[in-house]
Design a protein that fits this description.
The protein has a single domain, classed as DHBP synthase (Alpha-Beta Complex). A hairpin with a 2-residue loop joins strand 2 and strand 3. Strands 1, 2, 3, 4, 5, 6, 7, 8, 9, 10 and 11 form an eleven-stranded mixed sheet that branches. It is globular, with a radius of gyration of 16 Å. It has six helices and eleven strands. It is α/β, with parallel strands linked by helices. The chain starts with a strand and ends in a 10-residue tail after the last strand.
C-alpha cells in the first residue's frame, strides 16, 4: 500500500519532502507533480525501480527516459552540450521543455536511447519537483504518468491513488493538474529540431 502525501503546491512542507526523498533513496517509486502533469520518478541508479516504472507504463526498454534536473550544472554532468545549445537551454529553463542530448558516461546505459545514446533532460518549473530534486541532490529518473491506453497524463491524484496504490511507494498530491506536455527539442550535436510541440514556446528554437 502506497503512502499519500498532500503537499502544498506553492510552499512544499519540508518535513514531507524529506520523507519523500528518504523513500526514493530506499528504492521507492514516487508519483509527483511537475509543470507538465504528474510523473513517475525513482533514483537514477535503481534498476528495480526503473523496471517497476516500465511495468506500470507497459513500456519497453527502448523508451526515451528523462532525467529531472535541478539546474544547468547537472545538465552538463549528464549530457554533452554544445555552446549554442547551452545558451538556448539557459534562456528557457526552468520550464516545460525536454531537451534531447547525447548522454555522458554518468547516465546508466539502460536509460539511454539504445541507438542514439541520447537522454532527455528537464529542469521543471514546479515548486514540489524542485524541492524534491534539491533534497535528493541528484537528478531523478522520470517519465510522464500516462496510463496504458490513455493519450494524456492523468491529472487527478485521487484517481492515481485508486489505480496505483499497490504499485508505487508514494503518491504526492500536489493538486489537480492540467495535462500540458512538454515541448521536446532535439539538440544533439547542436542540430536543433522540435520533436514534439507542447506547452513550451518553440520560437526560441526555430
Amino acid at each position: 500500500m502506497s503512502q499519500f502525501f498532500q503537499i502544498h503546491p506553492d510552499n512544499p512542507q519540508h518535513r514531507l519532502i524529506v520523507q519523500a526523498v528518504d523513500l526514493i533513496r530506499q528504492g521507492g517509486v514516487v508519483v509527483y507533480p511537475t509543470d507538465s502533469g504528474y510523473a513517475l520518478g525513482c533514483q537514477l541508479q535503481n534498476k528495480d525501480a526503473v523496471e517497476q516504472i516500465l511495468r506500470i507504463r507497459q513500456l519497453g526498454s527502448e523508451h526515451n527516459f528523462t532525467l529531472m534536473c535541478r539546474d544547468l550544472s547537472e545538465l552538463s554532468v549528464y549530457s554533452k552540450v554544445g555552446n549554442q545549445a547551452f545558451r538556448l537551454i539557459k534562456n528557457n529553463t526552468p520550464g516545460p521543455y525536454t531537451f534531447v542530448l547525447k548522454a555522458t558516461k554518468e547516465v546508466p546505459k539502460r536509460l539511454m536511447n539504445p541507438k542514439r545514446k541520447t537522454i532527455g533532460l528537464r529542469v521543471p518549473n514546479n515548486p514540489i519537483a524542485q524541492a524534491l530534486l534539491a533534497e535528493l541532490n541528484e537528478p531523478m529518473m522520470s517519465t510522464t504518468l500516462i496510463f496504458p491506453g490513455d493519450e494524456f497524463a492523468e491529472p487527478d491524484p485521487y484517481e492515481i491513488r485508486m489505480r496505483l496504490e499497490k504499485q508505487v511507494n508514494l503518491i504526492i498530491d500536489g493538486g489537480h493538474l492540467m495535462e500540458k506536455p512538454t515541448t521536446v527539442v532535439d539538440m544533439v550535436d547542436d542540430e536543433i529540431a522540435i520533436i514534439r510541440l507542447g506547452e513550451g514556446d518553440p520560437s526560441p528554437f526555430a
